[in-house]
Amino acid sequence: MTAPPRPECTVPLVEVCITEFDLACLPETGAVFDRLLALHPGQVVVDLSGCRHIDAAAIGMLLDVHRRLVRVGGVLAVRNPNPRIARILQTARLDQVLPVRTEPAGPPAAPGPVTPRPAAVYGRAAVSTGG
After folding, report:
1. Would you give the DSSP letter of residue 96?
2. CA 101 to CA 125: how far, in whole Å?
3. What is the CA radius of gyration of the chain?
4. What is the pTM of this model?
5. What integer pLDDT is reported at residue 125 of this predicted model?
6. What is the per-residue pLDDT for 127?
7. The dihedral formed by the CA atoms of 34, 36, 37 and 38, expressed in degrees to the nearest 10
């Protein structure tokens, strides 16, 4: 006897803070995105406020994550790029494909386990592969 099928688990919002985002970091960052996308998030927000550099490979990864999310009805947004990165994103026309916003950062993550709010689960992951 097999267990009845269970509804797919979903997470409405996942926030990722990226501090290094270039070709050298793509294997680790890609693995994080793969794990996050397995959660079937409704929205992924990539916070670039602590990121100093982004290259073409990273932009390609953002476009790939965007395509994968759109296929399942999700949304990818970029938050708080510094002015230099914002210009790079505009030059690459990424701002015409997905939302690039400047807004205040959310509240700091509480230490220890996070208790989900009623009817919602929120996730936050920090990615830093720089040494």
Report:
1. G
2. 19
3. 16
4. 0.73
5. 46
6. 47
7. 90
Residues of the chain with pLDDT under 70: 1-9, 104-131
CA atoms lying within 13 Å on the CB side of residue 102 = 6
Structure-block tokens of residue 120: 């919602």
Q: Report the first-to-last Cα separation within the chain, whole angstroms.
A: 51
Rounded CA gap, 90 and 123, in Å? 28
Query: Which pLDDT score is estimated for 8?
Result: 61
- Residue 68's nearest CA partner among 30, 28, 121 is 30
Does residue 11 contact residue 121 with C-beta atoms inside 8 Å? yes
How do the domains of the chain map onto residue ranges? Answer: 20-103
Tokens 């996050």 map to which residue? 36
75 vs 98: CA distance, rounded Å: 8
Q: Per the structure block, which two tokens stand in for 42?
A: 């409704």
Considering the domain 20-103 in this protein, what is its CATH number? Answer: 3.30.750.24
Which region, left, alpha or beta, applies to residue 125 given φ > 0 means left and ψ of -120 to 50 means alpha?
beta
